From TrEMBL:
GO terms for molecular function: ATP binding; ATP hydrolysis activity. Residues 4-233 form the ABC transporter domain. Keywords: ATP-binding, Nucleotide-binding, Transport. Belongs to the ABC transporter superfamily. It comes from Desulfitobacterium hafniense (strain Y51). This is ABC transporter domain-containing protein. It comes from the Bacteria. The lineage of its organism: Bacteria, Bacillati, Bacillota, Clostridia, Eubacteriales.
């Protein structure tokens, strides 16, 4: 049977001690979709993303990627998911090329594919510079190259626009659109509706660990009375 949904989250919960960071979240991301998780800092977006990635164990609920349950097929799922964390940790002394080719070697990925992804993220000319000399935007690009290098079905980006200048944000949006056109399903988080409108086909709004609304931008504008062109942070 063909799998229609790339990601299925059902009644996911996460407790840190007595504190509940994620409360009964249901979320479906369809194959080929760009879905944005929107919410204030501390809303629970990163925790939910880490649960989806299998980096944080859910206290309850079910998460499936391409119809596979995380507990059962962890390794298989890792091959199908790419992840850009909120904060990246690179070795400052390595060049971009060394960073990406080291990672590629671990995953059995070719040199040609390394060149291709560095090209896609616009780092070919800087590939022999040390990562420690990179701006936040350039480190972001390297993180994206690493996240997409194994051609994942699902690309998960945690707050990818944070710390980028307006041009960096436009370029990031173009990359996301291109990868999506090539067939990659995308889930990303943001605290700024400006960054998600035009890009996401559907948006889920999180607040204090709960999913308070989901739908297209037009549906959310109708239901929640959001302005048609949003100029403020939610
Ligand atoms: P941000 O963009 O600031 O990361 P977020 O929406 O991604 O915001 P989370 O990082 O998921 O939110 O945090 C949700 C809540 O869970 C916050 O109140 C946070 O303090 C708490 N929290 C996150 N990680 C832990 C942890 N390891 N232990 C205890 N509490 C945590």
């Amino acid at each position: 049977m063909e799998v229609i949904n790339t990601l299925e989250v059902k009644y996911a919960q996460k407790f840190y001690g007595p504190f509940q960071a994620v409360k009964d979240i249901n979320l479906t991301v369809e194959k080929g979709e760009i879905y944005a998780l929107l919410g204030h800092n501390g809303a629970g977006k990163s925790t939910l993303i880490k649960m989806i990635l299998g980096l944080v164990k859910a206290s309850a609920g079910m998460i499936e990627i391409e119809g596979l349950n995380y507990d059962a097929k962890n390794k298989e799922i890792k091959k199908r998911v790419g992840y850009l964390p909120e904060r990246m940790n690179f070795y400052d002394n390595l060049t971009a090329w060394e960073t990406i080719s080291f990672y590629a070697k671990l995953k059995g990925i070719t040199r040609k594919r390394c060149e291709e992804v560095l090209e896609q993220v616009g780092l070919r000319e800087a590939e022999h510079r040390r990562v420690g000399t990179f701006s936040k935007g350039m480190q972001q690009r390297l993180g994206l190259a690493q996240a997409i290098i194994h051609k994942p079905d699902l690309l998960v980006l945690d707050e990818p626009t944070t710390g980028l200048d307006p041009i960096g944000i436009l370029e990031l949006k173009a990359m996301i659109r291109n990868w999506n056109k090539e067939g990659t399903t995308i889930l990303f988080s943001s605290h700024n509706l400006n960054d998600v409108e035009e890009l996401a086909q559907r948006i889920g709004i999180m607040n204090r660990g709960e999913m308070i609304a989901q739908g297209s931008l037009a549906e959310l504008q109708d239901r929640l009375g959001l302005p048609t062109k949003i100029k403020i942070d939610l």
